[in-house]
Design a protein that fits this description.
The structure is a single chain. The protein contains ten helices and 14 strands. It is α/β, with parallel strands linked by helices. It folds into two domains: 159 residues, Rossmann fold, CATH 3.40.50.620; 116 residues, Riboflavin kinase-like (Elongation Factor Tu (Ef-tu), domain 3, Beta Barrel). A six-stranded parallel sheet has the order 1-4-3-2-5-6, sandwiched between helices. A six-stranded antiparallel sheet has the order 9-14-11-12-13-10. The chain starts with a strand and ends with a helix. The relative contact order is 0.12.
Length: 302
């Protein structure tokens, strides 16, 4: 998969089938659409690519949105590679790009830069300055710029339309059984292990500490998790919260990995959220905390 971080598209990737969207989470609905687009490209003997945006436009426009992403851009690229695209265009979403009119987006990018033949979009797709462009805009200009539009249909599971918004809602509630069904895999975050205050080690439960980035924020509390690195894949428990027993002020993910007792400082780990165990709680003393952690470990192992 060729990755473009600009619009200098090679000739081999022009006259292609294009799918456009944020594809945050790359859930089952996204996967269905991209596989349909891939089949169309194969049938027409064309290349197939995706246009996505970084940062996610809603986060660009609203700086108050801090915890929103289902996947990091690195994770998105990883999952798109699995679908075996021919190319991926990551458009830098900034003030300049946000001020491009809808018709200019069609003319200068979809037509002049890409010479798109087929464009896959969702029915609620908005684009261009002030989000004035939509499927009607694309329909209006399709003859002028010689492309065809394929409007994707929502994908349903358990009578619910799968969307990134629905998945975020379930993440915030700690409903990871549902999240797993909608994604087709466990929801996971990746982060670099940072130095902590080593309280966990002192009380017999060493943890890997990770600052919570721009990921959607789960219900605060303790979770059963599976932790992966290049060297191992282990079960564990994780606490996401502020550590009220120690009067913590910053949001932190603390992961206790079963069967691992070595320093992972500065290592990148992947934490798969499996099951919510309990809400975050302030304990009267360290002894009560230790007893609860033992119970949490038993619950996680089950």
């Amino acid at each position: 998969m060729k990755i473009y971080n600009n619009l200098k598209i090679k000739k081999i990737h022009k006259n292609s089938v294009i799918a456009i969207g944020n594809f945050d989470g790359l859930h089952l609905g996204h996967q269905k659409v991209l596989n349909q687009a891939k089949l169309k490209a194969k049938k027409e003997n064309l290349k197939f690519g995706v246009i996505t945006f970084e940062p996610i436009p809603s986060m660009f426009f609203n700086k108050n949105i801090k915890h929103h992403r289902i996947n990091s851009i690195e994770q998105k690229i990883y999952y798109l590679k699995k679908i075996k695209l021919d190319f991926l265009i990551i458009v830098k979403f900034n003030i300049l790009f946000s001020n491009i009119s809808a018709e200019n987006f069609i003319e200068k990018i979809l037509t002049n830069k890409l010479q798109s033949k087929y464009i896959f979009i969702s029915r609620n797709f908005k684009f261009g300055k002030k989000r004035l462009g939509d499927i009607n805009t694309l329909e209006r200009f399709k003859k002028k710029y010689s492309y065809k539009i394929i409007i994707t249909t929502p994908y349903q599971k358990n009578k619910k339309i799968i969307s990134s918004t629905l998945i975020r809602k379930n993440i915030t509630k700690g409903n990871f059984d549902s999240v797993r069904k909608f994604l087709g895999r466990s929801w996971a975050i990746k982060g670099e292990v940072i130095r902590g205050e080593k309280r966990g080690r002192k009380i017999g439960f060493p943890t890997c500490n990770i600052k919570w980035a721009s990921y959607a924020l789960p219900k605060l509390g303790v979770y059963g998790v599976i932790v992966e690195t290049k060297e191992f894949k282990k079960k564990g428990i994780a606490n996401i919260g502020y550590r009220p027993t120690f009067n913590g002020k910053t949001l932190l993910l603390e992961v206790n990995i079963f069967g691992i007792n070595k320093n992972l400082y500065k290592k990148t780990i992947k934490v798969n959220f499996i099951k919510f165990i309990r809400a975050e709680k302030k304990f009267k003393n360290i002894s009560d905390l230790k007893n609860q952690i033992k119970k949490d470990i038993i619950a996680a192992q089950k």
